[in-house]
Design a protein that fits this description.
With about 70 residues, this protein is mainly α. Helices cover about 70% and strands about 0% of the residues. The longest helix is centred in the first third of the chain and has 22 residues, at about 5-25.
Length: about 70
């Protein structure tokens, strides 16, 4: 698995999990969905992604987007 795939899978998991938690548990979980969306948007402009930094330190091999 490349770094790009790991980041996209993690972001997808966070968005789906927080949306489900917001629907079934407490609407305040939707703030996590908004945070994940904002983080994806800003990383598309800046190339800075905290999740990519963590996965890189865990030894996930680089992909094309996050170097």
């Amino acid at each position: 698995m490349t770094l790009d795939a790991a980041v996209l899978r993690f972001a997808g998991f966070v968005v789906l999990a927080s949306a489900l938690l917001g629907y079934f548990v407490n609407p305040n979980w939707l703030f996590l969905t908004m945070f994940a969306g904002f983080n994806m948007l800003q990383s598309s402009f800046t190339g800075f992604c905290p999740a990519a930094m963590v996965f890189k330190k865990l030894g996930v091999r680089p992909g094309n987007a996050f170097r």
